[in-house]
Amino acid sequence: MANEINVKMFDDQNDLFDCMALDVERDILKTVEKDGGCSILLSGGSTPRPVYERIGRSLETMNAIKWGLIDDRFVGAESDYSNERMIRETLGEKADIAGLVSDLKDRRLNRQKAVERYGQFFMKTNISILGMGQDGHTASIFPGDKASEDLRESNKVGIENTIAPFYPEERITCSPQMICNSEKIYLVITGKDKLDILMDFSLKLPIHDIMSKRPDISIYYAD
After folding, report:
1. For the chain, what is the domain count?
2. Backbone phi, then psi, for 102, in 5-degree steps?
3. Which domain holds residue 123?
4. Are 28 and 65 in contact (CB under 8 A)?
5. Greatest C-alpha distance within the chain
6. What is the Rg, in whole angstroms, of the alpha carbon atoms belonging to the chain?
7. How wide is the angle at C-alpha 95 spanned by C-alphas 156 and 184, nearest 5°?
8. Which uninterrupted H or E stretch holds 196?
9. Contact assessment for residue 125 and residue 177, using Cβ atoms and an 8 Å cutoff
10. Chain segment 43-100, per-residue pLDDT in tens
11. CA distance to 142, 189, 191, per residue, from 134 (Å)
12. pLDDT in tens, 6-43
C-alpha cells in the first residue's frame, strides 16, 4: 500500500503551503464552474492553518462555497481551542461556515443539531482537508478511544462524539467513511517523525484507515 501513496515533498514549508493552497483553489474553481457550488470540510490544527490563510487572502469566489469542519473540540466558538474560531479567522467574514458546536449544555443534543446542519455534506462533499497528530489520529478519531474505534469499524456516514487523550478531551467528528466519500482528499503534514508514522501501515492507526480506502489521497509534506 505504501508504494501506491503519492507524497508531494517540499524542502521549505512555505513552498508547501503555497502549492497546496493553489491546488485547493484550483479544485474549488473547477468544481464551482462545473456544479455551480462547492462543499469543503476542513480540519483544525496549526499545520493546515497557513493553507487556509492563503486561501482566505486570494480566493474571490466565496459566495458559492459551503465550508464545514471535519472535527472540533466541544468548546465555544470564542475559545482558543475552537477549530471553528481558527477557520473563521483565516478564511474571513465572507466565508459561509457551518460549525459543529452550537449547544454546550448537552453533547448528544449538540450532535443531533450538527447532523441536521450537515445534510449537504452527507449528500456530497467535494473536498476534505486533513491533518494528522503524532499518535496517528486524524479528524477527532483517536487510537484507543472506544467511540473512535467503533467508527473505525463502521461504514457509517455521520457525525459522532469522541474522546481525545489530551485536553480538551470532548470532541465531535465526521466519520471516516464520510471523509472517504469526499471527491478529493488532501492531507498536510510536517516533520519526519510524522512521515515515518504515516508510511508505516503496520501500526494500523486511524490515518491508515483513510489511506487504505483512498490511496488517491493527495499528501503534502515538508520537514
Report:
1. 1
2. -135, -15
3. 2-222
4. yes
5. 47
6. 16
7. 40
8. helix 192-199
9. no
10. 999 999 999 999 999 998 899 999 999 999 999 999 999 999 999 999 998 999 999 9
11. 11, 10, 10
12. 899 999 999 999 999 999 999 999 999 999 999 999 99
